Amino acid sequence: AQSVTQLGSHVSVSEGALVLLRCNYSSSVPPYLFWYVQYPNQGLQLLLKYTSAATLVKGINGFEAEFKKSETSFHLTKPSAHMSDAAEYFCAVSDRGGYSTLTFGKGTMLLVSP
Amino acid sequence: GAVVSQHPSWVICKSGTSVKIECRSLDFQATTMFWYRQFPKQSLMLMATSNEGSKATYEQGVEKDKFLINHASLTLSTLTVTSAHPEDSSFYICSAIIGLSGTEAFFGQGTRLTVV
Predict the structure, then answer these.
(1) Half-sphere exposure of A71 (CA within 13 A, CB side)
(2) HSE toward the beta carbon, residue B66, CA cutoff 13 A
(3) What would the pLDDT profile of B15-39 be if each residue is shown by its tens digit?
């Protein structure tokens, strides 16, 4: 079985500041890892995914994440926050060798202040 | 890109009635679709996996007689909440993958169900 822990239900940053959203996972097999963003009353949009290729993954909207096996982490970062980045972010893991069955973390709400 | 559309976006119904939510893949064939439930300020919980032409596979604790899933075609899966109660009020989201193994899960925009 797999699980995902997102540290911090809310993260507040100023516009232009570094964004760091933390995600730790547990999985009995090599995982596939994902970050999704959700805007209010909308579905999920894939930001980026790790599928056992390069450990540093670049996604959309300037986000990137690094897979660290020794730390079982997949933290999401963005060098400079924008007001439009304010949303809920979910880390997810798949342990069946595919993208289909996902286990989600509880989510982190990113708040961006001017 | 692949688009998944859910309908309706929101619905209000009376206790005891049934509500049907549709999930359509607009520009690809989806052999497998997934239904999630999301409570306020919480994560997504997988309810069931829907496979075209066969019975859905429900997660532990999900009542299959209450949440009826039909996947009659490669582009449409429906979730029917039967005899709805206020505790069924939630945000329901579907996702779909392309092909049998799936290369990425595409999510619908969700349906907000309120049972009064």
Answers:
(1) 10
(2) 10
(3) 999 999 999 999 888 888 999 999 8
Q: What is the DSSP string of A9-48?
A: SEEEEETTS-EEEEEEEE-SS--EEEEEEE-TT--EEEEE
Closest CA to B107 of B56, B36, B20, B41: B36
Q: Taking an 8 Å Cβ-Cβ cutoff, which residues of chain B contact chain A?
A: 4, 6, 9-10, 32, 34, 41-46, 49, 91, 93, 95, 97, 101-105, 107-110, 112
Scanning every residue of chain B, which has its alpha carbon at the shortest distance from the alpha carbon of A51? B103
Residue keyed to tokens 């959203």: A21
Smallest CA–CA distance, residue A9 to chain B, in Å, is: 9
**What number of residues does chain B have?**
116
Residue A107: predicted pLDDT: 93
CA angle A73, B2, B90 (to 5 degrees): 65
How far apart are alpha carbons B69 and B22 in whole angstroms? Answer: 10
Contacts of A99 in chain B (CB under 8 A): 97, 102-105
Q: What is the pLDDT of residue A1?
A: 74
Check residues B66 and A103 and name the one with the higher pLDDT: B66
Calculate how close chain A gets to B66, using CA atoms only, in Å. Answer: 22
- Amino acid letter, residue A50: Y
Q: How far apart are CA B77 and CA B70, in angstroms?
A: 6
pLDDT tens profile A22-44: 999 998 777 889 999 999 878 88
pLDDT score of A53 more than 60: yes
